């Protein structure tokens, strides 16, 4: 039993250490252009680990941005297009715990989730096109707050804005689908979609493996949801350090009892 405790604590410690060392900048390549996301791995470790699990498994490759709401968000990560509608859902891992530490302001990236279930995020994510923290969306408090886990530079937001600027169409089972080289006349004529019409994520790859690349950023803390945020380097590190200390203590106690 005691050896099992040591093994369990050690595994948890190793997992947390691996989370803390996760890469923090990824490059998203779409058929509209590229943009980078700087991930907040030190302050939203569970969410970043989850996102990178999909990245490393290649599950985002070939997915589409299936929702575009001007002045609000563009959303993707959950579906692929296989020559015809309806879109096909991508297999998901288990849902994760909510980490509403940062505010849903413009250029931040957050996880989508099921209504009325704070801890239901899996693979779908969205980019905030505006300050959606309060007002009508209230993303900082709605459904216990939506977890912001990354940020896009103002320059790279030009690509995101280009996607958001595409004309949107509705089809059976889906609304607000952004399309390229597709017109209202095409829709009226029920012209079939081809892959190039959709905004496709061709790949998401790690471009910077340092764990502290978010240190130079100044994300806005989500105080409405009680996340607190804290400093993006020291604050995030102190949280990880606290858990590391706890797990290390578990190992020490277990070893002493074993003797």
Descriptive notes:
With 259 residues, this protein is α+β, with helices and mostly antiparallel strands. The chain has one domain (23-227): Cyclophilin-like (Cyclophilin, Beta Barrel), CATH 2.40.100. It contains five helices and eleven strands. The chain has helices at 2-20, 45-56, 157-164, 184-188, 234-258, and strands spanning 25-30, 34-39, 63-69, 73-80, 88-89, 108-111, 125-128, 148-151, 168-171, 174-178, 201-208. Strands 1, 2, 3, 4, 5, 6, 7, 8 and 11 form a nine-stranded antiparallel β-sheet that branches. The longest helix is centred in the last third of the chain and has 25 residues, at 234-258. The model is unreliable at 4-23 and 229-259 (pLDDT under 50).
Helices and strands, with pairings:
Layout: H1 2-20, E1 25-30, E2 34-39, H2 45-56, E3 63-69, E4 73-80, E5 88-89, E6 108-111, E7 125-128, E8 148-151, H3 157-164, E9 168-171, E10 174-178, H4 184-188, E11 201-208, H5 234-258
Antiparallel strand pairs: 1-2, 1-11, 2-8, 3-4, 4-5, 4-7, 6-7, 6-8, 9-10
